[in-house]
Every structure is written in C-alpha cells, then in structure tokens.
Design brief:
581 residues; Porin; 2 domains; five-stranded antiparallel β-sheet; disordered N terminus
C-alpha cells in the first residue's frame, strides 16, 4: 500500500518533468575549430546571476544541459586563451531543445593577426604556455576532460578578496560576522582536486582594525554525481588581544588559564553538509554545525539545518528552511566555477571590552514563489527567528554640554522570538535593468517612549529596562543595473521602517547588512586577467556605501542632554576581489 501511494505521488511529478526543455550548443573559435573544455554557465534570466547549471564542452566543442524549467536564460562562456562571452537572453520552451552556436574570439589576436612560423612570436608563446606545451605545438596539452559519468571534473582554483572599511563609530567592538567594521578584512578560498570526484577546500578570514581576528576552515568535498554533493569541515580561529579595548580584559578571567594570555579567545568548529537532487523536482540541503568558544571557560552551540526546495511546476517553487547560517556580502566568496562559499559560522561572536559572548539566531522560513510571465516573479513567505544569547550589539552615544562619548553595549542574555511575513515582487525591466520591491510586517525589539526625563547616565546604564517587542512595517526597493560598454554593475537599495528598531526585521534576507531605514549603494567593475602559464582569472574592483542617510538612530531626550542609540553606523567599504584557476 505504501509503495502504491509513493507511485501515485511520483507519477505526476515525472510527467511534469516532460514539460521541461533543454539547451544544446557548439563552441568554436573564429577559425572554426571546436573548443573543448570551455566552461558554460547557465544563468536564470529572472534572478541576477543565479547559476542554474555549469558544464564543459566535449572534444567536439559540444555541450548539452540537463532539464531546464521553461523561461528565459542567458549563457556565460569562457575558455583559456579566449575572450569571455555573455549571450543575450534566450528562451527555453516546454519539451523543446534550444540550440546555440557560440564563437569565441582569441584574446591574443589583439597582439598579432598571424602566428610566427618559427613559434617564437609573443602570441604563440603565451598560448602555448597556457596549454602547458612550452612553445611546441605538436605536444598534447594536459587539459582535463569530462568524466564518463557526466560530472564536471574538479580543478585547481582559488579566490580571495581584501577590503578596507571605515565607519562613523564602533569603538572597542569586535563582531563576527560584523555589519560595520573599521580596518582591513580579507577572505580567501583555495580548492585542490584529490580525485575525479573529490577535492579539498582551504578557506579562511582575517580581520585587523578594531579587532584582530583570524579563522581557517578545511573542507573535504565529495561529489559522486551531479545529483549528490557532500562536505565535511573542521575550523579553528583566534581573537587575539592586540586590539583597542583588549587591555580591559579582567585579570580574573585571564588567571583561569595561563594560555589565554597568549591566545586570547579561541574558536573551534565542525560541520557536515549534504545536497541531494531528485530529477528537477526536489532539492534537499541538510547538515549540522558545532561551535565552541573558549576564553577562560567554554561555551558550545550545536545546530542542525535543513532546506527543501520543491518545484512542482514550471512556474511554482516552494522552499522551506531551518538554519543558523546566514549569507552576507562580508562572509561569502565565489570560486571561478561559480560556486558560492559561505565562510561564516552559524554563531555571532562579539567582544566588547572585557565581555566575550556567543549568540545564535535560529531562522525558520517557508516561502512560495510564482513566476508570472518571463519577466516577473512574486514571492510570499513567513519566517521566525529564535535568538539565544544577547544577539547583535548597539552603539550608544551620550551627548551633554560637557562631552560626547560613545560605547557599545549588548542586550540581556534572554531568548526572544521575532516573526513576520514578507511579500516580494521582482521584475526585469530590460535585459540589463531589473528591480524589486519587498514588504515585511514583523515584530522587533524597540525602545518604548519615556514618560519622564531621566539623566543620560541613568539611561545609558538601564536602557534594557525600556526595551519592548512591537510590530513594524518595512518596505525595501532595489534597482540593479549593468552598463553594457564597461560591464559595470550598480546596485541601489533603499529601505523604510515605521520606526527605529534595535533588532533587524527579516535579517536573514538582508545579505547587504543594511539593517536600517536608509540607502545603500554597491558598485562592481570586472577586469579580466591575461591568460598566462595555465592560469586564467578576473579582478573585481568594488565599493560599498552603507546606511548613507540614516543609521537606525533613536534619540532619547535626557535632563542633561540626550542619548543616541545607533544600531548600524554609516560605513564606506572598498576593495579588490580575485578569482583564478
């Protein structure tokens, strides 16, 4: 009876898979030669740079995708020695195969039009070294080929970025993952294949500024086929004492462990993750993480996570998730194959003076998205956040006629819940211009109105007594544009709240760490690197401006002045990113 029920459930799903389409094509050079091992990335046209599939061309320069949900897409094709190419949008129709013929331009044709018959011209030398043939054309190269199982092989690659940030506040505070940071931060990841189906990934983060923090993570990645992917990782980190405010760590804490004088705060992490796909209908991501913090005494968190994505039809998808790991700009890095690595751990680590704390926000959500035509999508979601620990800190500035001073404080160690609903609309206006609007109604922690004037010192010391949970409205608008000539990406986001909250509304959907009612800007400029000695890569130059006009400021009048509560200070962040293989 059970098997019969399962059969009845799967029959309509398999029948629906027949409504999917395919993409096939051929990649050649200008001279007509087929190009093997070209990387083909399929992007969903509705969502900016959402990679649907990655594959390589075979020995004949041909490629073919798996099932694709009908809609509009575009391709990005790259290969060593050739200029990358991004196609215009194309449509995938139900039950049909769309064919594309791609021609790549030799990047070294810009140097000379003809090869030197002696094999000594610059173009020949550069091309030959990139194929690992020295300068002899008749020696076969060492390019990897597609595996017989159809799985794209792993290859050696890496990515790194470095950023310098400055903000209007944040004295004596180190927060990981941090939303505003003074100083220099860097992320990196290196992938080394160990077999046709496995690789090791070494990743890490380093921060210097208000804090001195580093952490590394070693991950073993096993991918038996395109439908299964498994990762096991272990990580270690330290928050050293060489930062502003570290001298205030009490001798009582330090005396408990003599090693603490040298190592400061130590973190240990262990994680397990699995991904499974069933046809094009069901995708499941599951795992667990364990974090341990030691700073004279130890504190640990264990948290499972699961995410289920169901696509019952070509225009609907339903997603449910339970996780503590949040995706944000400052904690992610992209490998050359398009894979996004989230380097953060599902724990918020905060050090303020002599106070070190861990917090965890467990996020659960269920969302449904409906595609309306080829250019528009509508999403409806409900979510809930449970916080263990003090959560995110806030900055308090006391202003009196005699002085103005700022300090960072944390909330009480009380668990609290936030819940809400989200309605979002995404629309692609043109091929290189898109926009979205999201409305959220949820409860947050805010400061209640004061019935009488109090001294600034009293408010500063007893602010937690005036906090309360209340529901607020939030509207976020976003414009995403790409300048065709320079390939410059520009993203502008504005957010409005009905009040100023101390905790963010729908924090897990805010990858930009905006957090307040304000305006954010992102600018990205890609600069391809020349192909040399078997290595190809790309620089990204970028700048971010966060919370330009408002910083979530709440001004509380006092007898001797005023107290300003600022949850997310204004900041400017700029830097460079590099990925290579």
């Amino acid at each position: 009876m059970i098997l019969f029920s399962i059969f009845l459930f799967l029959v309509p799903l398999v029948a629906n898979a027949k409504d999917n389409g395919y993409l096939a094509g051929n990649i050649k050079s200008v001279s007509g030669n087929p190009l093997r091992n070209a990387i083909v990335k399929i992007f969903r046209e509705m969502q900016q740079r959402e990679i649907v599939s990655i594959m390589r061309s075979d020995n004949r320069g041909s490629f073919k995708s798996a099932h694709l949900t009908p809609g509009t897409y575009f391709l990005e094709v790259s290969r060593q020695g050739y200029q990358p190419l991004t196609t215009t949008k194309f449509a995938i129709d139900p039950g049909q195969t769309t064919s594309l013929n791609i021609i790549l331009q030799d990047i070294l044709d810009l140097i000379s039009k003809e090869d030197d018959p002696r094999n000594w011209d610059l173009k020949t030398v550069l091309r030959s070294t990139s194929d690992r043939r020295l300068i002899f054309r008749d020696v076969p190269g060492e390019n990897a080929s597609i595996s017989e199982s159809g799985v794209s092989p792993f290859y050696r690659s890496g990515a790194m970025n470095i950023a310098s940030s400055t903000s209007s506040g944040g004295e004596g505070c180190l927060l990981r993952p941090q939303t505003s940071h003074n100083g220099v931060s860097s992320n990196f990841a290196f992938a080394e294949p160990t077999s046709q189906h496995s690789r090791m990934i070494l990743s890490g983060q380093v921060d210097f500024g208000n804090g001195a923090f580093w952490r590394v993570r070693d991950t073993f990645n096993y991918r038996p086929d395109n439908s299964h992917d498994y990762k096991v990782s272990v990580g270690y980190g330290r928050m050293n004492q060489g930062y502003l405010g570290a001298d205030s760590i009490s001798s009582e804490i330090l005396s408990q462990d003599s090693d603490l004088r040298e190592s400061g705060v130590q973190t240990l992490a262990f994680g397990l993750e699995g991904n499974t796909k069933l046809l094009d209908l069901l995708a499941i991501k599951y795992g667990f993480d364990y974090s341990r913090l030691h700073y004279g005494y130890s504190k640990s968190f264990f948290y499972p996570s699961i995410q289920i994505l169901l696509t019952p039809s070509k225009s609907w998808n339903i997603q449910t998730s339970f996780t503590s790991q949040r995706v944000s700009d400052i904690d992610t890095i992209v490998l050359p194959d398009g894979e996004l690595l989230n380097l953060s751990e599902p724990t918020i680590l905060t050090m303020i003076g002599n106070q070190v704390s861990m917090s965890q926000i467990r996020h659960s959500e269920i969302a449904a998205q409906r595609t309306i035509g080829p250019e528009t999508a509508v999403e409806v979601a409900v979510f809930q956040d449970n916080t263990r620990g003090p959560g995110l800190p806030v900055m308090i500035t006391t202003i009196t006629p005699l002085e103005s001073k700022s300090n960072v404080v944390q909330m009480n160690e009380n668990s609290f819940k936030q819940r809400g609903a989200r309605l979002g609309i995404k629309h692609r206006i043109t091929e290189r211009l898109s926009g979205s609007v999201a409305y959220v109604y949820g409860d947050t922690t805010s400061i209640s109105s004061l019935e009488e004037l109090l001294s600034s010192e009293f408010l500063n010391s007893n602010l937690a007594d005036y906090m309360q949970q209340r529901y607020q409205h939030s509207i976020t608008g976003q414009i995403d544009a790409i300048i065709p000539v320079t390939k410059t990406s520009f993203l502008a986001t504005t957010r409005w709240y009905s009040g100023n909250s101390l905790t963010p509304v729908d924090w897990f959907s805010d990858r930009m760490d905006m957090g307040t009612k304000s305006v954010n800007f992102e600018i990205r400029q890609s600069v391809p690197l020349p192909y040399f000695i078997g290595t190809t890569g790309q620089w990204d130059v970028w700048a971010d401006m966060r919370n330009v006009f408002n910083q979530g400021r709440e001004v509380l009048p006092a007898i001797d002045g005023e107290v300003v509560v600022n949850r997310n200070p204004r900041s400017l962040r700029f830097g460079l990113s590099l990925n290579f293989r």
